[in-house]
Specification:
This protein is α+β, with helices and mostly antiparallel strands. It has one domain: OB fold (Dihydrolipoamide Acetyltransferase, E2P), CATH 2.40.50. The chain has 7 helices and 11 strands. The strands form 3 sheets. Strands 3-4-5-11-10-7 form a 6-stranded antiparallel sheet. The chain has a 3-stranded antiparallel sheet with strand order 6-8-9. The chain has a two-stranded antiparallel ribbon with strand order 1-2. Strand 4 and strand 5 form a beta hairpin. The longest helix is centred in the N-terminal third of the chain and has 20 residues. The relative contact order is 0.19.
């Protein structure tokens, strides 16, 4: 039931986004390379970083258009903190076709695992070997050195329209943080930065394994 409500809310956000922007849709800025891309300071929403140059899937993954059909993908700051300590990440093989909203990688922690879904559809063109060797990169710098895969997306423009950005992304992150606070025991809820600070890492560290699995699957829509 919770997943259905989340999906309905996500659909409502997309509907509002379409009505607001259907007369002035613009493609994401094209970046020649990651090295030449301008440094954008992420907005802080409910304690979590939400860079304004990205588009977000409701399952807490992000997409960045780097050229007409190349998209860089990773997990967002909310996901990196919710997962906690990452033992390893299983990334898809190069050349694999992935669909928007379907499983793209699996994160392992303390003998448990959780899947995350792709924000984009296309063929995996590259994977971040550095993250394979050091999964903590995805936790420490999820929008930079911790990116996970790049995808050749033949219909990038349509895919990006299905994602959240701008004001809608901020509202969605506020709602995600509020839901997570409601799922945590009262003694742990203060770590969620209600005072405008940065949310701490691994707010679910002391939860029983079953609760961790349920919470991560709920938020990652997996």
């Amino acid at each position: 039931m919770v997943v259905i409500l989340v999906l309905l809310t996500f659909g409502l956000f997309l509907g509002i986004d379409y009505v607001r922007s259907r007369k002035q849709i613009q493609e994401q800025p094209v970046l020649a390379t990651r090295e030449t891309a301008p440094r954008i300071v992420p907005a802080l929403v409910a304690g979590f970083q939400v860079p304004e140059n990205l588009r977000y899937h409701a399952g807490h993954t992000w997409a960045l258009s780097e050229s007409r059909d190349l998209v860089r993908v990773g997990l967002d700051d909310f996901a990196s903190k919710l997962v906690g300590k990452m033992e390893s990440i299983a990334l898809p093989q190069r050349g694999r076709w992935i669909r928007q909203g379907q499983k793209i990688w699996t994160i392992f922690r303390d003998g448990k695992s959780v899947d995350m879904v792709s924000p984009i559809e296309g063929t995996v063109s590259d994977i971040n070997e550095a993250v394979m060797k050091n999964p903590e990169l995805a936790k420490k710098d999820p929008y930079g050195e911790g990116w996970l895969v790049t995808v050749q997306a033949p219909d990038t423009k349509t895919n990006l329209r299905n994602l959240l950005g701008g004001m809608l992304a901020r509202v969605w992150m506020e709602e995600s943080a509020a839901r997570l606070r409601s799922r945590l025991p009262m003694a742990m809820a203060p770590v969620m930065a209600q005072d405008g600070g940065v949310a701490v890492d691994d707010p679910t560290e002391n939860l029983p394994d079953q609760d961790w699995a349920e919470i991560t699957k709920e938020f990652f829509l997996s």
